[in-house]
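At this stage, I put together one protein's amino acid sequence and its backbone structure tokens, which the following lines show:
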Amino acid sequence: MSSVLPALQKQQEELLQSLVKKAAHTDFGRQHHFETIDGYAQFSKRLPIQSYQQIRPYIGQLKEGKENVFWPGKIENFAVSAGTSGKGKHLPLTDTRLQSDRRFMQKVALSYLKQRPNLFKLLGSHLSMPGSLERQEELLIGEISGFSALHAPAWLRWLQVVDPQKLTELSFQQKFDLLLEKALTADLRVITAVPSWILTLFQQVLAKTGKQTIKQVWPNLNLLVCGGVKLANYKPYLQQLAEGLSLDFIETYGASEGYIGFSDDLRKNDLRMITDNGVFFECVAHPSPESRRDSARNPLPLWQVEKGLPYGLVLSTNAGLWRYTLNDVIEFTSLDPLRFIVKGRVNDMLDEYGEALYIYEAEEALQTAVRNREFDMSNFSIAPVLKNNREIPYHHWYIQFNRALSDGQLKELERRIDEQLRQMNRHYAIRRQSDALGKPQITAITQANINRWKRQQGNAGAQSKLPRILEKNTEI
């Protein structure tokens, strides 16, 4: 057990108490006697762990106009998580939460300027690709980046090649085409978007201009601010296309539930956890889909976590989420200050045929397999496959590489991945040894393949992601 960090404990407990006090006279607060909660011990005993399925009926009440359900007042803004504006999870966005989001972005900006004090290098055109927002009677529903754009300060909108507020009203393809058109002749300095779409932007800019590198189009481009998907999967590819530029990368890690951390040190790949901005954190060690449904598993507060263990996150927030489970898995790399890496998703487990393979294990095996090779990968997804009752199942890996590979290289990579997974995962090894699972097969894909597949699924939004695990027998 790690030593108690007194300053962190004091900060988080004071934040928790302020959240509880603020919501004491809501329906949820009265139901759980918030007025008499005095500290984390009482809070953790009195409140159950919540999943979206458990709070869905109350979300329905909020959308019908009921006030003071989880948080004081009426909620008219909802952030979409894991779906489109018409489907998926709709999570409440309070004015207090939106203020926290603005503070988070200020922290990101100040951290960068502290490391790169020359503000003039950023004074040019900025490009951001926010998600879309949809008006449904009195409600506004959409991606969290769309709300951030809607509430961006006027001076920041003035720097943009296209007003971000206008972009929130357009479909993804409309906004992408408009941004591409306007950016081609701009003195671009900063891009803020999901890294997969920055990659697409780079590729299409080079195709349209006939240039060899992004430096020839935007010689003053300095900074990429990325979020939504793991930057490490795309960074080498982006650097290759921007050869000759000294690009800085900032990775932000947030969700519809709240912003959690960002890369505050340009020399490091891990992220700094933000613990003073309206979110009280708890962590479940060694999370699994089963542990998410088991409220008897006691989460730990931040001041009791350890380095080097996988944790699932549980949040209580100033948007009225109480002990709400996230689907992400993180691992702490430092305790003072708290720094972490994102490992994957709790529910991202391949277990169609009893292999019980976590996706972060698959990613680690892939990274090990390509290490010290002459190529890099930027994205991957896996589909379990069973074609007919005369064959054995296998995993079909779709991997995005930075250059074309020969059949021999792909076969060697299949062998290395299989070897790594056998060493890492007992369930996988047993099924491979018993011929209950065939060897993995790899198909190389491009960003164009990914974009086309997402459009076919009706999920081409600015923050849409290629799932790590595909439905059985899916092809990209």
Notes: The chain has a mean pLDDT of 89. Residues 95-115 form the longest helix (21 residues).
